[in-house]
Design brief:
Length: about 400
Amino acid sequence: MAGADDSMDVPETDELTPPNRTLMGPGPSDVHPRVLRAMSTPLVGHLDPSFVEIMDEVQELLRYTFRTDNRWTIPVSGTGSAAMEAAIGNVVEPGDTMLVPTNGYFGGRMASMARRAGGEVVEVDAPWGEPLDPAQVSDALAEHDPDVFGFVHAETSTGVLQPNVPELTAAAHDHDALVIADTVTSIGGVELRVDEWDVDVAYAGPQKCLSCPPGASPLTLSDDAMDKVLSREEDPRSWYLDLSLLEGYWGDERAYHHTAPITNVYAIREALRLVAEEGIEERWERHERLAGALKAGVEGMGLEMNAPDEYWLPSLNAVRVPDGIDDGEVCGELLERYDLEIASGLGDLDGEIFRIGCMGHSARPQNVIYAVTALGDVLESMGADVDPGAGVTATRGALE
């Protein structure tokens, strides 16, 4: 058998040249040039003293961005779903009850992960496209007495921002439940205050409002949450995401657990430096202002937003698809004609909305005007009842 592989054909491939898209979908967003440059710097070992210093910096920058003093604040090696599973899979023990929302796609993912962790899932109902009602949450807490309550702060599938977060966390803590918040589409883009709002665990993704490639995902836990993790009677089902083991690497010891994605840590460090340089509150204001111009543009051309103004999510704008229009064809034409990415709906809203992001480095005036112009042109060419010129005028007026 020696040399048998010599007869195999060598695959023919060209140099990697992906298209240069403008990313205005639900993520990823455009990556800042400084982040790309950071990723091209030389590798060091994941236990190199210089990398340990970088780890310290990333943790401190994450605390600033989450608005927390939590000691247990790390980038999980993996995408935002890995941070999500680290949060739920460690905090939810077999036999625990977790209360989850039904008002979007990612509440459903919370439920799936809790069940895989051995938990019993109960639900607090709310329609897709609406936030949770604190009174209904309180009633569900009283009825089910869960160990953990999870909610989605910024629901990427519906374009809804959950208001009244302190009311939700207070109700949960009145029933001695820990609170896990999905902040994937809110961190760095809309107001998020982990400590002030009394959130026990928050997880996020780097590829949305932080404008960083996926691969190292933010996670923070309060002392109470980490105490529960460290006092578990049964190990979490994932060795890789076991926070009691990851604590040895990201804690004081810096003991080997796995080879960290070094380049991705470089990237998130630079992305978080950009957040700190801009100022977190100024960054929230920029997202609201530019997304407001996007919203003015789509409404100006005759389209409707999916979420009412009182819980509109600036970082992810859900826009109703006009009658008689195929959303998938529109998304395809935007890619073909304009190298512009937006996305269709998920789950219950599949085919009913466009999801247009306004996140991080993508949240710039030229991108907003470009997106409104391109969307109006494509919709008009397909026979939709829109006024593209009015949309662009409204966008420019909002920006000025």
